[in-house]
User: Fold this.
Amino acid sequence: MSSWDVIIIGAGAAGLMCAIEAGNRGRKVLVLDHAKRVGQKIIMSGGGRCNFTNMYTEPQNFLSDNPHFVKSALKRYTQWDFLAMVEKHQIDYHERSHGQYFCLDSAKQIVQMLLDECEQAKVTVKLRTEIVKIDQQDDGFELNTTSGDLQCESLVVATGGLSMPKIGATPYGYKIAEQFDLEVLKTTAGLVPFTLHTQDKEWLSPLSGISFDAEASCNGTTFKEALLFTHRGLSGPVVLQISNYWNPGDEVVFNLLPDMDLAHALSKSSPEQELKTVLAQWLPKRFITQVLEAKHLESKPIKQYNHKELQDICDYFHQWKIKPNGTEGYRTAEVTLGGVNSDELSSKTLEAKKVKGLYFVGEVVDVTGWLGGFNFQWAWASGWCAGQFV
Assistant:
C-alpha cells in the first residue's frame, strides 16, 4: 500500500493550490482526479482566458449560509497574493470592467503555472483514477482506488460542484461529506441563464443576440451589467449575477435604461418625433419594435400620447418585469450554490470539526462568489489555507 502525508481528491483550482502549499511545507502530497487532464474548468473559463481573480474581492461578494465563513481565508490569501504568483511566472494579464483580471493569452498558462509550482513542491498528480472506497483509520484514511490502495494522514476533498457535467462534474464530494456525517446543504445551479415561460419566449426569442446594459433586481439585490437575449431566454452577466439570488416563482425587475430618467428625456424630446425614433437613441431598434408590438402600442409622435400613457411607457422600461420559468441548470451554470455546510468546517483550516484530518476546499463547500473571478479567488484562498495545515 502506498503511503502519503496528504491525498487531495480533485485536480482543479482549489486542489492544486492546496497541493502546492502542502508540498512547500515538506509534506508528501498526491493529487488524484478521474479526468484525463488537470484544471478543465480553468481552461474553459473566461472564454479560454481565465478570469482568475478580481481586484475588488471582499467577503460581501460571496453567498453562504454563514456569510462570515469566507472572511478568514480571503484575508490570509488575497487577490494580490495570487497576482504575485501570476507575475512571478511572467504571465501577461489585463484588467477588464469591474476589476476582473484575465490572461492576455490563454487560460492554459494558469494551469501550467500551477503544474510548475506542483513540480517544484514535489507534488505527485495522478489522473484517470476512480476512488472506490474511503475508510477512516486511527492514523488517517485508507483509499481503495483503480490505481491501487492508498493511505494518508490528511485527506482533502476538492471535487468542485455539479456545474458543467460535460467536463466531469459529479456529486462525489458531497457523498464523501455525507459518509462522514457532515451536513450538505441543498445544491442548485448558480450564475446561470434564465429560461422563459412560453408566452414570454414567443415574443422575446426573435431578439436573440441583442445585448445592452441593464439593472436586474431580485430579493433586495441589484446588479448592473450587460443583458443578453438568447433563443432560450435571458443571459448575459446581469442575469448570471442575479440568478444567484432568484428562487423559483420569483419575479425579476429589469431597469432597461438605468443611466437615465426616461420621463425627463421624453419631455425634452421634440414633440413631433415618433416614440420609437426617440427610444432608438438609447435602445436597439429591434428591441423597441418588438416591445411596442407586444404591448399593442402604436408608435406615434410624442405629442399624441397623454400623460398617463407616457408614464406607463416610462414605468415599463424602468421596471420591466419577467417571471422566469427556470434556469438552464447545471449544463451551463458556472458554479453550484449550496454544498458542504460551512458550519461543519473550521474557517481557519477548512478541516471538518468532527473528523480529524478531513478537509473540504473550493466549490464543494457552501460558498459561491459573484461572477467576475470571485469563485477562483475562493478556490485559491481556501486551498492555500488548508495547505498550511494538512
